[in-house]
């Protein structure tokens, strides 16, 4: 059997495993990857891909999952990879900049030699169209096509005509192109499904520190606003201010994980006063903590997990707008240690928030919405990890549909 090592000498975290995943899909091999490490001081969200069975891995694995058509498993040791290759062909990405163990490749090759497994090496190069193999024949299509959002696909993404829908993503462009690409990819999937042109405008949260009127004016011209997830708590104040502005202005807004937390906190500002409330994780000294640690607490089915990861069932609340959007018995990838403070829910409901879905037997609020708003909806999980071309997540489709309606009739999105 054969072990194919795919060398991609990049320092872009979002490319981790992308080319190897596409090659594995094209050749029908198994896909494995070695443990990785990243400079999280520079790239806070470089390891935020959520494994279906739980745990976190390199964020670029989202491209491998999309190419393979199935979730990627957690990292394997060199011995485990060679054992798999002895039973059938295996493809492994090699990124020297991201290897957790500098000796892992040598150990992998020694183990392969000892087991009689042939090793094949291929090299990835960047082209004008995307990513290709260095030994590909002239004129061959790339292994992965790059779209104008930075996404990597096994076939070219078409560009629809017509006026583009302008959506603001409250995040830094580099973070969402080169570090954690899933949020932008999920928007592009939904736009492709709807047949609409899309322009994504990146609005770094630290820049949203002016007067509420100025922030509202900056966001008012967009068809919709996406509040992404992420682990960098420095983004929280700007996200909350953005959510407060779109809540007041009626601009369609969707929140993913951290984004659900910040949009809920914007409702708390309405209930308790601006800047009084924040996430415990972002501001432990906040007078009112909207999202609190699950560790050591109970609710619903019993003790809540300290860290909730992996595919989790979600129970939409009957009669909610979200219930009409999601399929029956939905499952979503989760990655969070904090949840909406149960004691605040009654006050938030009086301020216009509605719990739209729960998890852990009702012990966790998994989605929120504001019924009086044209579209103000978020999920505690990661809908962007449950999407691919041809099968976008319904929450993102509903968001862009509302955004398009907002452009046609701002008063009735």
From TrEMBL:
Domain named Glutamine amidotransferase: which ranges? 178-395
Q: Which residues form a coiled coil?
A: none
User: EC number(s) for this protein?
Assistant: 6.3.4.2
GO MF assignments? ATP binding; CTP synthase activity; identical protein binding; transferase activity
Q: Which InterPro entries match?
A: Class_I_gatase-like, CTP_synthase, GATASE
Q: Does the keyword Transmembrane apply?
A: no
Q: Which PROSITE patterns match?
A: GATASE_TYPE_1 (PS51273)
Family from the record: Belongs to the CTP synthase family.
* Tagged with keyword Transferase: yes
Q: What is this protein called?
A: CTP synthase (glutamine hydrolyzing)
Enumerate the UniProt keywords alphabetically. Answer: ATP-binding, Glutamine amidotransferase, Ligase, Nucleotide-binding, Pyrimidine biosynthesis, Transferase
Q: Which reaction does it catalyse?
A: UTP + L-glutamine + ATP + H2O = CTP + L-glutamate + ADP + phosphate + 2 H(+)
One GO-annotated biological process of the protein: pyrimidine nucleobase biosynthetic process
Q: In which pathway does it act?
A: Pyrimidine metabolism; CTP biosynthesis via de novo pathway; CTP from UDP: step 2/2
């Amino acid at each position: 059997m054969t072990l194919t090592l795919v060398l991609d000498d990049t320092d872009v975290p979002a490319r981790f495993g992308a080319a190897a995943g596409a090659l594995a899909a094209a050749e029908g091999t198994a896909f494995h990857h070695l443990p990785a490490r990243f400079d999280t001081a520079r790239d806070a969200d470089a390891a935020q891909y959520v494994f279906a069975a739980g745990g976190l891995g390199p964020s670029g694995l989202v491209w491998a999952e999309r190419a393979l058509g199935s979730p990627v498993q957690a990292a394997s040791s060199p011995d485990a990879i060679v054992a798999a290759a002895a039973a059938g062909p295996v493809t492994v990405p090699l990124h020297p900049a991201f290897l957790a163990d500098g000796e892992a490749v040598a150990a992998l090759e020694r183990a392969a030699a000892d087991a009689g497994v042939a090793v094949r090496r291929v090299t990835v190069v960047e082209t004008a169209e995307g990513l290709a193999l260095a030994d590909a024949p002239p004129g061959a299509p790339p292994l992965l096509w790059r779209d104008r959002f930075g996404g990597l696909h096994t076939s070219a993404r078409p560009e629809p005509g017509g006026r583009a829908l302008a959506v603001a993503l409250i995040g830094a462009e580099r973070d969402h192109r080169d570090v954690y690409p899933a949020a932008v990819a999920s928007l592009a999937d939904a736009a492709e499904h709807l047949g609409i042109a899309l322009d994504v405008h990146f609005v770094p949260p630290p820049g949203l520190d002016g007067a509420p009127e100025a922030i509202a004016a900056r966001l008012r011209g967009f068809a919709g606003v996406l509040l992404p997830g992420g682990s960098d708590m420095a983004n929280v104040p700007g996200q909350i201010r953005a959510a407060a502005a779109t809540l007041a202005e009626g601009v369609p807004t969707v929140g993913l994980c951290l984004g659900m937390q910040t949009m809920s906190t914007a409702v708390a500002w309405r209930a308790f006063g601006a800047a009084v409330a924040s996430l415990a994780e972002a501001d432990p000294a906040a007078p009112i903590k909207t999202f609190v640690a699950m560790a050591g607490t109970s609710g619903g089915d019993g003790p809540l997990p300290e860290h909730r990861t992996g595919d989790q069932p979600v129970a939409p609340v009957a009669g909610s707008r979200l219930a009409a959007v999601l399929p029956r018995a939905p499952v979503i990838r989760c990655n969070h240690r904090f949840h909406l403070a149960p004691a605040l829910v009654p006050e938030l409901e009086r301020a216009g928030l509605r719990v739209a879905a729960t998890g852990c037997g009702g012990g966790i609020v998994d989605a929120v919405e504001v019924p009086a708003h044209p579209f103000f909806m978020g999920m505690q999980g990661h809908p962007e990890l449950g999407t691919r071309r041809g099968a976008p997540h319904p929450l993102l489709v509903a968001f862009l549909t509302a955004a398009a309606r907002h452009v046609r009739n701002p008063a009735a999105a």
